[in-house]
Specification:
19 strands; Gyrase A, domain 2; alpha/beta; Alkaline Phosphatase, subunit A; 32% helix; 2 domains
């Protein structure tokens, strides 16, 4: 009998350590998610062969938990990915299906991006944290303009400015935030990421938010221009590593390090580029886009919506089956070419399974070395001399995998997994704050966090049997 009682007590104790009650906000817990845009896993899994000196990434990996790679979403581009990182759902569900908003070829091309949080159609980390009474912050995080975030310095720019200025970001920042932070910014903080790091340090020191999102962008630009593993990209990576160290040190000075879990993530990997392909040129030739004598579009039935290594084809009339069939036939010819620009054509059924761009009649996935462009005139294919890296392809491609390290208070030290899913990261971060998403497609990654910290999601109601 005594053995039975002891066994029952042990089972109850074990259960209490490995489960948590849903929606019990932990006001003393802190989550900081740092996204290094375009960070490839190799830079932290095997930096030494590259000659890469990243002491902070190495420390996070060795003293925390990590994945060898993360399978992302489709298309594997920045704004859809960053929205999946904070919602736990794929683009078709959260609504941010591309970086740039689709604009018909016959209208003025503003080239505006999905900057505004109102376009997100699902729960976010900040919305569930806000509802639970926890404090929130974001610095440079995509799709956060006018979000209900307590301390917000959003990412927004004027696409017509070259190079872009911070004018619009300052306009939409939390009133007074940047003016207060400005005196603390170092004279040497002259780049975008240095300034974002300085603002992050200020927010941590003064407000200690429960949930914080930070987006650093300069590595992505280096990869696009010079390619992965280029000396220029490795140099930028080492700078980003130093910024990570500054953010961590800010939590130590603020006295919250021991209660903070860091998620070091990225949005996509990178593939090499040597050619640019313009699908719209083919659509013009096949009279699905009509140009005037000056090369301006005056009518259209189908148009390309490129995203680097992938390209959606949009119909003006989604019910136009004749044009849909013609589009498929046009690009099947490119698919059949030896060393052609199209590596794969994805049907609507396949796109539904991937949770990708509901408006697309089909999507093109690039052949090796190809990126898609949106030109209407000129050659279909040109050599790419100033653009050597891209992304946007199917996330199942190994080179497109993104990154994940969990470090700090909630990390299961020494844990490692071969492949995580991007849609599982938001439920994991929420769980460490005692919160649960009610709509997420993803689930918490218990393998990388300490046991007993993640609440179980509420049970979904069982479907009624037919006839009831």
């Amino acid at each position: 009998m005594a053995i039975i009682v002891v066994g029952l007590m042990l089972a109850i104790n074990l259960h209490s350590q490995t489960t948590a009650t849903p929606q019990q906000p932990r006001a003393d817990a802190h989550i900081i998610m740092i996204s290094i845009d375009g960070l490839v896993p190799e830079y932290y899994t095997a930096p030494a062969p590259l000659g890469l000196k990243v002491p902070n990434l190495t420390r996070l990996k060795l003293e925390g938990a990590y994945a060898d790679g993360v399978e992302g979403i489709y298309p594997s581009v920045t704004y859809p990915a960053h929205t999946s990182l904070v919602t736990g759902v794929r683009p078709a569900r959260h609504g941010i299906v591309q970086n740039r908003i689709f604009e018909a070829p016959t209208v003025e091309q503003t080239k505006e991006w999905y900057f505004f949080a109102k376009d997100i159609r699902s729960e976010t980390l900040w919305s569930i944290a806000k509802k639970a009474g926890l404090s929130t912050s974001a610095v440079g995080w995509p799709v956060t303009v006018e979000a209900e975030i307590d301390y917000n310095f959003p990412e927004i720019f004027d696409p017509k400015e070259s190079p872009p200025t911070p004018r619009r970001a300052l306009q939409y920042a939390t009133p007074g935030l940047i003016a207060k932070a400005a005196p603390t910014i170092r004279q040497t903080d002259t780049t975008t990421d240095a300034r974002r790091t300085a603002v992050s340090e200020f927010i941590i020191a003064n407000y200690k938010p429960n949930m914080m999102l930070i987006h650093l962008v300069e590595l992505d630009g280096a990869h696009h221009r010079y390619g992965v593993r280029s000396p220029q990209a490795l140099e930028v990576t080492e700078r980003e590593d130093a910024f990570i160290g500054r953010i961590i040190e800010a939590t130590r000075r603020a006295g919250i390090f021991d209660k903070t879990t860091f998620f070091l993530v990225s949005d996509h990997g990178f593939a090499p580029v040597d050619r640019k392909f313009n699908p719209n040129v083919a659509l013009v030739r096949e009279k699905l886009i009509t140009l005037d004598s000056g090369g301006k579009a005056v009518d259209w039935k189908a148009a390309a919506w490129p995203a680097g290594g992938s390209c959606a084809i949009i119909l003006r009339d989604p019910s136009d089956k004749e044009t849909a069939a013609k589009v498929a036939a046009i690009f099947e010819k490119y698919l059949a070419r030896s060393k052609g620009p199209v590596g794969r054509i994805l049907t609507r059924k396949e796109l539904d399974r991937l949770g990708a761009i509901p408006e697309a009649v089909l999507m093109l996935d690039a052949a090796p070395g190809v990126t898609f462009e949106d030109g209407l005139t000129g050659p279909e294919t040109v050599e790419s001399k100033d653009y050597l890296g891209t992304h946007g392809h199917l996330p199942s491609r190994a080179e497109l995998r993104s990154s994940l390290i969990v470090y700090g208070a909630g990390a299961r030290v020494g844990a490692r997994m071969p492949l995580a899913r991007m849609i599982d990261i938001a439920p994991t971060a929420a769980g460490l704050l005692g919160l649960v998403f009610t709509e997420a497609e993803g689930v918490a990654i218990n393998e990388l966090v300490k046991p007993g910290l993640i609440p179980k999601p509420p049970a979904k109601p069982k479907a009624k049997a037919s006839g009831q």
